Amino acid sequence: MSPAPLHVAAISLHTSPLARPGSADAGGMNVVVLEEARALARLGHSVDLFTRRTGTAEPAVEDVSAGIRLIRLDAGPPRPLAKSDMEQAVAPFEVALRAHLAAHDDHYDVVHAHHWFSGVAALPVAREHGIPIVQSFHSVAAPSDASSLRAGEPAESGGRIAGERLTAQEADLVVAVSEAEARTVRERYEVPASRVAVVRPGVDTTVFHPAERPDLDGPPTLLFAARLQPLKAPDLAIEVLARLDATRGARLVLAGAASEDFAAYTDELHDLARALGVQDRVDVHGPASREELSELMRRATVLLLPSWSETFGLVALEAQASGTPVIAWRSAGGVAEAVGDGGIVLDSRDADVWAHATETILSDAAEHGRRSRLAREFATHRTWDASAEHLAEVYREVVAGRGAAPRAVLAGGTSADDPWSLLDGARTVLTVQAHPDDETLSTGPILAHLTLGGARVVLVTATRGEEGETIPGSRPDGDERPFEAVRSAELDAASSALGISERHTLGTPPALAPGAPERRYRDSGMRWVTPELAGPAEDTGPDAFTRRPVEDAVADLVALIDHVRPDVLVSYDDDGTYGHPDHVLVHTITSAAADRTSVPFVEVASYLDDDTPDPSFSWRDTPEAMEAVAAALEAHRTQLDVLGREEPGAGHPGGVRLRLSGGQEHLLPLRTGIRLREA
For residue 430, what pLDDT is reported? Predict the structure, then answer.
């Protein structure tokens, strides 16, 4: 039976979700709040959007669309306020919200506060009514001692940093829009990783879509779409325009306006354009509606996203959906997570570097077309419906009491003598492996047991198994795929057989540290030191997993943990199954990531040398995993041969007999030993 629909109270105190982005203090947050509400409504949920009244003629309640209402509360003067003046409205908004809930028979399952103003006002009211509260910031203030915009948006008023800390620490869950924002919240406000979830925004690919007939013959158009303020750096966009080949006649469109706190900034931009001699090629369009912005993006040749700080960079996703390549700065928070292969993410803020990157796109129509196709492909997999489904799942966990600190509850209530109770209570398990086939050979029975029991199991593999030995004749004649592609396909099939819901590769998003360039951890190779013990290959290269900085791999795994939010980590014990150096390193990395994120780490016992179980592990037979494990082993046909099954018998768990590529024959028993690693 489907779960009951949710009734959500979404709080957006300082700006109405219906306000046009790019005007005053309206921006990506407005889009996220409204579009996620619409997508939640399409899923059958209902959402009430609460905001502050900014005009005497505005109705108290407005039906936005089916399942969505906008409720305006009297809080402060009924007129627009600068963000720097908004603190005066927080206490009145709290009073008005409390009065509204007292006067209306509306039962809310969850309160979702957007921005710290909303959180400070809504937190005490939600607590009084026993309603779980989720907090999103959309922008995290720079530290008070920050000397550069690199650190983020300066606090617009004295209470912001304290307000963010309060709401981050007291809310049941913080929902960030990117891994970068999640890390910032954890580090600046000391919030445990178990109380921060990441739900990335989406894009409406029907509104934002490529032009049917792109016009690449006329002068190119550079587009900047954001509020006009120093944090968004439209000045860099103007400098880029001035450094392009003037014969191109390129134009720059600034789609946005300055807020009251930056009223003089537009004049400064005009002065800069005049000083650089490009004033006649800079158009200040002003704030754009969704439809207007989509048209601007379809007509643009390139979107420039030069912001100093973005928690995500929604306009990048919208531009890519429109088939417009994006150029952005890597260190701007979550921007790197919002830009796919069709874009260019730069490490420099030098205008000459940006101009060169722009020229590479403007000067080659084929290259522009290639990037345009990649951009659209990247965006089509990131819809609002997918975002809302994830958000609804997060809401349900909070409502069920699991969102506040599921990891802490599990770890605190589990004895090291009974790690199976930890696994049996886990809703999400992240298993960390070194190579394709390890998920089956090292942990197949336990993973199949978990998925058959309804757990969500996510797999991350450190390498692509490039150095694995190949069984002669295991690849059909004419198969010209790279070996890593063959192993990837085998891993897909094995994962499916085990019931694994998703898999990732370390060093690629979301298993990549925020702001880091993608990195490849290559299989370190191995040699058999004894018939049962592996050692490192003698010709290990510089990109081998065992020769890469350990801290990089730990940071990448932590990023994935932040994304997946597992209750438990599962991987090898410290012997690494049969001593493969990559296995041993994965154990080291998983241990470090577990310590850093406070996620329990369950170690799986290595191969048995005899029939005597290691008493330091807790053992369980899982005969129900036979079919799944056998099918998963069959999938890895280049690495092993399945010789047959042994059915369970008296005192024997049964298992699958196999021959490895090195010729060793093993029984993979349906008996697994686990222990909870001591921190």
Answer: 96
Question: How far apart, in Å, are the Cα atoms of 592 and each of 42, 132, 569, 597, 678?
Answer: 42, 32, 12, 9, 12
- Rounded CA-CA distance 455/428 in Å is 6
Which whole-number Å values give the CA distances from 159 to 93, 378, 492, in the listed order? 16, 39, 50
Measured CA distances, 253 to 118, 229, 323, 542, 658 (Å): 33, 15, 17, 46, 64
Q: How far apart are the first and last CA of the chain?
A: 40
pLDDT single digits (tens) 293-314: 999 999 999 999 999 988 888 9
Contact 224, 592 (CB under 8 A): no
Per-residue pLDDT of 601-653, as tens digits, reads 999 998 654 556 788 899 999 999 999 999 999 999 999 999 999 988 777 88
Contact at 8 Å (CB) between 407 and 600?
Answer: yes
Nearest to 17 by CA among 30, 35, 27: 30
Whole-angstrom CA distances from 73 to 3, 61, 142, 259, 592 are 31, 9, 30, 22, 48
Q: Are 646 and 655 in contact (CB under 8 A)?
A: yes
Return the amino acid letter for 458: V
Query: Which residues pair with residue 302 across a beta bridge?
Result: 222
Domain 411-676 fold is Rossmann fold (3.40.50)
pLDDT bucket at 588, cuts 50 / 70 / 90: very high
Domain 221-380: homologous superfamily in CATH: Glycogen Phosphorylase B; (3.40.50.2000)
Q: What is the pLDDT of residue 406?
A: 37
In whole angstroms, what is the distance from residue 607 CA to residue 618 CA? Answer: 14
Residues whose CB is less than 8 angstroms from the CB of residue 610 and which lie 6 or more positions away in sequence, other chains included: none
- In the predicted model, is pLDDT for residue 393 greater than 80? yes
Two tokens, residue 433? 């492996």
Q: 């190119």: which residue's tokens?
A: 220
Task: Give me the phi and psi of 120, to 5 degrees please.
Answer: -60, -40
- Relative orientation angle of helices 314-321 and 365-380, to the nearest 10 degrees: 110
Reduced to 3 states (helix: H, G, I; strand: E, B; else coil), residue 676 is: strand
Task: Give the CATH fold of the 7-198 domain.
Answer: Rossmann fold (3.40.50)
pLDDT at 260: 80
Query: Mean pLDDT over residues 30-43, rounded?
Result: 95
Nearest to 210 by CA among 122, 319, 102, 311: 319
Q: How many CA atoms lie within 13 A of 269 on its CB side?
A: 29
Strand order in the sheet with 671-676: 502-505, 456-461, 428-433, 568-572, 601-604, 671-676, 618-621
Domain ranges of the chain: 7-198, 221-380, 411-676
* DSSP letter, residue 203: B
For residue 292, what pLDDT band results from cuts at 50, 70 and 90? Answer: very high
DSSP, residue by residue, 233-291: -HHHHHHHHHHS-GGG--EEEEE----GGGTTHHHHHHHHHHHTT-GGGEEE-----HH
659-679 as b/e: b if 16+ CB within 10 A = ebbeeeebbbbbbbbbbbbee
Tens-place pLDDT, residues 416-429: 457 898 888 888 99
Q: What is the mean pLDDT of residues 244-273?
A: 92
Domains 7-198 and 221-380 share a fold: yes
